[in-house]
Amino acid sequence: MGERYDSTAAEHYAAYRPPLHPRILERLVGPSEEFASGLDVGCGTGISSVALARHCRAVTGIDPSASMLERAEPHPRVVYRSGTGAVPGALPGSPFDVVAFAGSLFYTKSAELRRGLLDLCREGAPWLVYDFEILLDPVLAALGAGVRSEASDYDHTVDLSDWEGFETVIRGRERIRLEVRSVEMVHLLLSDSNRHDALAERHGNTDLFGTLVKLVERDPGLRGLEAEIHFSRHRGPGGCA
Ligand SMILES: C[S@@+](CC[C@H](N)C(=O)[O-])C[C@H]1O[C@@H](n2cnc3c(N)ncnc32)[C@H](O)[C@@H]1O
Fold first, then answer.
1. Residue 118 C-alpha to ligand 1 middle, in angstroms?
2. What b/e string do you get for 96-122 counting C-beta neighbours within 10 Å, with b at 16 or more?
3. pTM here?
């Protein structure tokens, strides 16, 4: 997140996203816990809404970005709406039994959001906050293409522990590893323009994808994807969660 996208990068972004959302939600939601209605704030292209739908009978995903919503993943139990949650107004599925922010709280957190969402939720509903950082620097270094991270004030650890009336029930940070296929790793590498440019500079632009797939294929160590995950679960005011 905080990456630079263009159309080539967007194609690779659409071609593969690692299945981190369900893995993180498993740390926040009990195995037998099921919610009637969930709200996914800042749903983007719906990856997080579909992941939340594993734990809910119905999910509403909201996002202010029309271009994100246009690409939103269809799912029989998910509806998407344009919105921020900070502007009062009914949403399908309200009152919600659970609220989730996947990589979106940093952008959305405000007093208006708190007020707007409390009106749309049941008392004591759990609020789930999570984010992740995919650690590709070692893979890039092994492929001879270092990319200097741009300075950013983005905070992956933002949560709701400082909101009055909210109680933190779970808070964690872990490094997890997924084994991925060579083509998946290369889609991921090329899904950001800075990484794409650095790899093209090192390996040339003629069949960059094919060249990288062969290189990753030769080294099983490059098919391990590491991510730093951050997650918290909060109990909203009133009731229990
Ligand atoms: C990094 S993306 C995460 C998308 C999705 N939740 C996921 O996990 O793939 C952050 C999303 O927050 C959305 N966003 C930005 N400001 C927002 C706001 N004020 N209210 C709701 N969503 C917002 C952006 O449009 C973007 O889709």
1. 19
2. bbbbbbbbbbbebbeeebbebbbebbb
3. 0.90
